[in-house]
Write a structure and sequence with these properties.
Keywords: Carboxypeptidase, Glycoprotein, Hydrolase, Protease. Pfam families: Peptidase_S10 (PF00450). GO terms for molecular function: acyltransferase activity, transferring groups other than amino-acyl groups; serine-type carboxypeptidase activity. The longest helix is centred in the first third of the chain and has 14 residues, at 73-86. Helix 4 runs antiparallel to helix 5 (73-86). Mean pLDDT is 88; it is low at 102-111. Among the domains are: 18-29 and 194-272, Rossmann fold; 33-86, no CATH class. A hairpin with a 6-residue loop joins strand 6 (234-243) and strand 7. Helix content is 33%, strand content 16%. It has helices spanning 2-11, 32-37, 39-45, 51-61, 73-86, 135-146, 149-154, 182-188, 208-216, 263-266, 268-272; strands at residues 22-26, 101-102, 110-111, 194-200, 221-231, 234-243, 250-256. It is an alpha/beta fold. It has a five-stranded mixed sheet with strand order 1-4-7-6-5.
Length: 273
């Protein structure tokens, strides 16, 4: 949507003109239905669920795992089993542990580190060692660092303008009026831009399958078929190249092998190169 806004501004002569050449999207949640409906086949592809369960889901749910009719008891039952199978999976990267941290003493239960205020996280909880290490510990440390008074002074954060800094602030009040950005992508195929779309292939929040599905909806022509790409002589993922019918617009899609959501966090060397 930002890219479209820039192009619209260029077209009506807004200054300064931006010499836009292309855009990059990493693990983008482009269409909620396409994304969420790809979770079941993704779970099967990565052997999180059995082939028997996957076949039952396809048969009973008719390939729609989002809009489920409560009267369809076979589909509901199969989806309940599916949800149980993936309940304890780390959705950001299925290969990494699903870490939890105890809430402050007065509140019962457990929640993820991401749900806690950085000031509530005792440093003693951030154990160092492969047996206890979780990526959330890095995230928690970033919050502790960003909320340190010396850091805030060095960054010239003005008093009473920003409260506790959070890596992912879920408290912003807004409403969504655009549910899918596929039409924007479709419109951009009429330009001469380049687009790079990449996905971590172990991301269970925005699966690469869903990304591939909406890319195929753009009706582009495959220019280079699925092939591996390499960093330091090792396969780092797979890529395809697509062109518009006019040949002006180019879209390159790439998976990042072993990466989760926010692929550069998991595979920085591969993504940078």
């Amino acid at each position: 949507m930002v890219v479209q806004h820039v192009l619209d501004g260029n077209q009506i002569g807004l200054e300064p003109t931006m010499n836009l050449k292309g855009y990059v999207l990493g693990d983008p949640r482009t269409d909620p239905f396409i994304n969420d409906n790809s979770l079941v086949p993704f779970a099967h592809r990565l052997t999180l669920i059995s082939t028997e369960l996957y076949n039952s889901l396809k048969e009973y749910c008719g390939g729609d795992y989002v809009n489920i009719n409560a009267s369809n008891t076979e589909c509901v039952t199969a989806m309940n089993i599916y949800n149980e199978m993936v309940l304890q999976i780390n959705v950001l990267n299925i290969l990494e542990p699903n870490c939890k941290l105890a809430k402050p003493r007065k509140i019962e239960g457990r929640r993820s580190l991401a749900d806690l205020d950085p000031i509530d996280i005792p440093l003693t909880e951030l154990k160092n060692g492969s047996a206890y290490w979780c990526r959330e510990y890095n995230h928690a440390l970033s919050g502790i660092w960003a909320n340190d008074r010396r850091v805030r002074d060095a960054l010239q954060v003005r008093e009473n303008t920003t409260g506790v800094w959070k890596r992912c602030n879920a408290t912003l009040a807004y409403s969504k009026n655009v549910l899918s950005s596929v039409p924007f992508h479709q419109n951009l195929t009429k330009t001469s831009l380049w687009a790079l779309i990449y996905s971590g292939d172990h991301d269970f929040s925005v699966p690469n399958i869903g990304t591939e599905n909406w890319i195929h909806l753009l009706n582009l022509t495959t220019n280079e078929y699925w092939r591996p790409w390499f960093v330091y002589g090792q396969v780092s993922g797979y890529t395809e190249k697509f062109l518009s019918s006019s040949g002006d617009f180019t879209l390159i899609y790439a998976t990042v092998k072993g990466a989760g959501h926010i692929a550069p966090e998991y595979k920085p060397k591969e993504v940078i190169r």
